[in-house]
């Protein structure tokens, strides 16, 4: 069994809340969850009838930021209590992981307020609000609509279509933020992130790392029920490899930056090594416009289609765009 106490950061017993336990198998996959409500004045809880193993214990309470801890459950009665400390107030917290449940550091994280009904202002950003021009909002709405419509065709399973739709929507949201966006935070070395002092409302939680596909999920924040920690699992997407050369047959250029722009307007930067070769993950299936950045100038775009799995794309820099020999 599991015994424990949920308390405020200051050491006082917490209010009543919901405790959720999830078991993990030997392969690291999460099993089914169980939810138990408790309303003890000292914040105490107890869960019995558990099989021995590794578990995740998650506590959510009204007016508090949810907390999640890992614990090992042994056979028999618990011989000591776990103490789970919770912060009063509403913050969005969580972890960014890859497919193998390893933490992803350096992922950019945005919390964008979703459009509210009856003409309410859209496009709010937490941790520093910045308005968009009407043209930019209209452009973003058009990209989102294209992303949704582009994912409706075909006969694949609903889950696959939803995943593709979400990835394209996330790409459109990130592209709409602009190059000078300064309100994002980054996941730390443990993949952890925290967005503090978040008002009640409904938000898009957008996560982007250049080596993975863009991610978006809906987050609803209500003081009456608290906030659960988020687990973001990033998909590595498709792989593109290739080399960059000059049409004139000159030596292979090193340190050239290729700019892949998807149909939602999101740019992906890839640099070549000393042999002029590159390899990158995090591509969606679809058509990209590809340009090379040479100093302060860029070449004319070429079109490249990314398919499932590994893709190869060799880029030739036009002779007129190549730096002149001295």
How many independent structural domains?
3
Secondary structure tally: strands: 23
Using the alpha-carbon principal axes, give the shape. Answer: elongated
Class computed from helices, strands and strand pairing: mainly beta
CATH level 4 superfamily of the largest domain: Carboxypeptidase-like, regulatory domain
Under the CATH scheme, the architecture of the largest domain is Sandwich
Rg for CA atoms: 24 Å
The low-confidence parts are 24-31, 119-134, 147-162
CATH topology category name of the largest domain: Immunoglobulin-like
* Proportion of beta-strand residues: 35-45%
Biggest sheet architecture: 5 strands, antiparallel
**Overall pLDDT score:** 75
Note down, in words, how this protein is organized.
The chain is mainly beta and 326 residues long. The protein folds into three domains: 2-86, Immunoglobulin-like (Sandwich); 92-233, Carboxypeptidase-like, regulatory domain (Immunoglobulin-like); 238-321, Carboxypeptidase-like, regulatory domain (Immunoglobulin-like, Sandwich). Helices cover 11% and strands 41% of the residues. The protein contains two helices and 23 strands. It has helices spanning 134-149, 158-177; strands at 2-8, 17-24, 30-38, 44-47, 53-60, 67-73, 82-86, 92-97, 108-113, 185-186, 192-195, 201-208, 215-221, 230-233, 238-246, 257-261, 267-271, 277-283, 286-294, 297-298, 302-306, 310-312, 315-317. Strands 16, 17, 19, 20 and 21 form a five-stranded antiparallel β-sheet that branches. Strands 3-2-5-6 form a four-stranded antiparallel β-sheet, with no helix packed on it. Strand 19 (286-294) and strand 20 (297-298) form a beta hairpin. Helix 1 packs antiparallel against helix 2. The radius of gyration is 24 Å and the shape is elongated.
């Amino acid at each position: 069994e599991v015994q424990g106490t949920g308390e405020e950061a200051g050491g006082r017993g917490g209010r009543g809340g919901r405790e959720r336990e999830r078991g993990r198998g030997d392969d690291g996959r999460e099993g089914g969850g169980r939810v138990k409500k408790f309303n003890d004045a000292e914040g105490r809880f107890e869960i019995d009838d558990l099989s021995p193993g590794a578990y995740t214990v998650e506590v959510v309470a009204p007016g508090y930021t949810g907390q999640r801890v890992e614990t090992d459950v042994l056979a028999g009665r618990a011989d000591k209590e776990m103490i789970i400390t919770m912060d009063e107030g509403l913050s969005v917290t969580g972890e960014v992981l890859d497919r193998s449940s390893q933490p992803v550091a350096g992922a950019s994280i945005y919390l964008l307020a979703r459009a509210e009904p009856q003409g309410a202002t859209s496009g709010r950003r937490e941790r520093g609000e910045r308005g968009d021009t009407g043209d930019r909002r209209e452009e973003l709405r058009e990209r989102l609509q294209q992303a949704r419509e582009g994912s409706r065709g075909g006969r694949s399973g609903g889950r696959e279509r939803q995943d593709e739709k979400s990835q394209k929507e996330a790409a459109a949201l990130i592209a709409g933020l602009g190059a000078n966006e300064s309100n994002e935070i980054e996941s730390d070395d443990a993949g952890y992130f925290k967005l503090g002092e978040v008002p009640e409302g409904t938000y898009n939680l957008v996560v982007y790392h250049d080596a993975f596909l863009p991610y978006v999920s809906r987050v609803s924040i209500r003081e009456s029920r608290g906030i659960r920690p988020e687990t973001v699992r990033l998909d590595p997407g498709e792989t593109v490899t290739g080399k960059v050369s000059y049409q004139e047959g000159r030596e292979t250029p090193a340190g050239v930056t290729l700019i892949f722009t998807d149909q939602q307007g999101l740019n992906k930067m890839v640099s070549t090594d000393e042999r002029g070769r590159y390899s990158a993950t995090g591509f969606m299936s679809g058509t990209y416009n590809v340009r090379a950045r040479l100093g302060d100038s860029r070449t004319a775009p070429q079109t490249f289609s990314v398919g499932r799995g590994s893709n190869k794309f060799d880029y030739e820099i036009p002779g007129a765009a190549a730096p002149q020999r001295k």
